[in-house]
Amino acid sequence: MPELPEVETTRRGLAPHLEGRIVSDVVLRRPDLRWPIPPEIRALLPGQRIDSVRRRAKYLLLDTESGSALLHLGMSGSLRVLPADTPVEAHDHVDLNLADRGRSKGRVLRFNDPRRFGCLLWQPPGQVHELLRGLGPEPLSDAFDGDYLFARSRGRKAPVKTFLMDQGIVVGVGNIYAAEALFDAGISPLREAGKVSRERYGALAEAVKRILAYAIERGGTTLRDFISPDGVPGYFELELSAYGRGGQPCPRCGKPMKEGAIGQRTTVWCPRCQR
DNA sequence: CTGCTTCCCTGACGGC
DNA sequence: TGCCGTCAGGGAAGCA
């Protein structure tokens, strides 16, 4: 379940292997992932040079002159650069074969996604894909801060955790990091978004930035399904204070952490430290 | 517009 | 050991 840090780690891992390389061939073993894979992927991508590998929210974009391949890893997706003769395994849905270049011969960018919540779509040059419209700011950008959260939250009755996970408010804060940031900022995930003060939103924005930046620095969280782009399993254990610790003692006060569902998502918080 | 629910999919895990 | 039910989770879509 890649969250933003895992996607950014993937981007950084892939970029040196992909940028400047020509896509020689596209192999689709399924016609669809979450959505049908559009015909442009087969029709326009072969022969194109990948100019840059970008990230927007949890989407990756492979930019070429004829357009951009838009990838989302969903819950269980991974991208790896492998020798072209690597045997295909279960759930290897898409290959982008890369043309030889110097000593770097016969490689393939392989997209594996057991649960198929991911997608591979196409964005024409100069356009912004429908899915990327209406997204909130990047959490690590200057546009995202406490004042911004405060302004956007006025009148919102939804729990602050739901608000924080709304991609139209800020992108890339999934269930794990939302729980961690709220713990860090001492805010109850149940609190009405519109009733959190400006000052506390300042603390929350800082917590989000700190936690995401740290996770990126560490190469993404542990995440069961995450595999780093060079094929090494990315099992970094990030010390999580809240997520997955229901019933266990609060790392700050020792009182048992509470666990419950907020908006159909499991949440853990400390009833004493988070108000 | 906000907010709530449902659904997609498969592997992991617990219970019998 | 094997079968089966349940859960997880990003986020779009549909509905109130």
From TrEMBL:
InterPro entries given in the database record: DNA_glyclase_Znf_dom_DNA_BS, FPG_cat, FPG_Glyclase, FPG_N, H2TH_FPG, Ribosomal_uS13-like_H2TH, Znf_DNA_glyclase/AP_lyase, Znf_FPG/IleRS
Superkingdom classification of source: Bacteria
Catalytic reaction annotation: Hydrolysis of DNA containing ring-opened 7-methylguanine residues, releasing 2,6-diamino-4-hydroxy-5-(N-methyl)formamidopyrimidine; 2'-deoxyribonucleotide-(2'-deoxyribose 5'-phosphate)-2'-deoxyribonucleotide-DNA = a 3'-end 2'-deoxyribonucleotide-(2,3-dehydro-2,3-deoxyribose 5'-phosphate)-DNA + a 5'-end 5'-phospho-2'-deoxyribonucleoside-DNA + H(+)
Keywords, sorted A to Z: DNA damage, DNA repair, DNA-binding, Glycosidase, Hydrolase, Lyase, Metal-binding, Multifunctional enzyme, Zinc, Zinc-finger
Matching PROSITE patterns: FPG_CAT (PS51068), ZF_FPG_1 (PS01242), ZF_FPG_2 (PS51066)
Cofactor note: Binds 1 zinc ion per subunit.
Pfam (any one): H2TH
Nuclease keyword on record: no
Positions of DNA binding: 91, 115, 156
Active site residues per record: 2-3, 58, 265
Cofactor annotation: Zn(2+)
GO molecular function: 8-oxo-7,8-dihydroguanine DNA N-glycosylase activity; class I DNA-(apurinic or apyrimidinic site) endonuclease activity; damaged DNA binding; zinc ion binding
Boundaries of every Formamidopyrimidine-DNA glycosylase catalytic domain copy: 2-118
FPG-type domain residues: 241-275
EC number assigned by the record: 3.2.2.23, 4.2.99.18
Biological process annotations from GO: base-excision repair
HAMAP family: Fapy_DNA_glycosyl
Functional note: Involved in base excision repair of DNA damaged by oxidation or by mutagenic agents. Acts as DNA glycosylase that recognizes and removes damaged bases. Has a preference for oxidized purines, such as 7,8-dihydro-8-oxoguanine (8-oxoG). Has AP (apurinic/apyrimidinic) lyase activity and introduces nicks in the DNA strand. Cleaves the DNA backbone by beta-delta elimination to generate a single-strand break at the site of the removed base with both 3'- and 5'-phosphates.
Subunit architecture: Monomer.
Family: Belongs to the FPG family.
Alphabetical list of NCBIfam families matching this protein: fpg, PRK01103.1
Name this protein carries in UniProt: Formamidopyrimidine-DNA glycosylase
Protein species of origin: Lysobacter dokdonensis DS-58
Higher taxonomy: Bacteria, Pseudomonadati, Pseudomonadota, Gammaproteobacteria, Lysobacterales
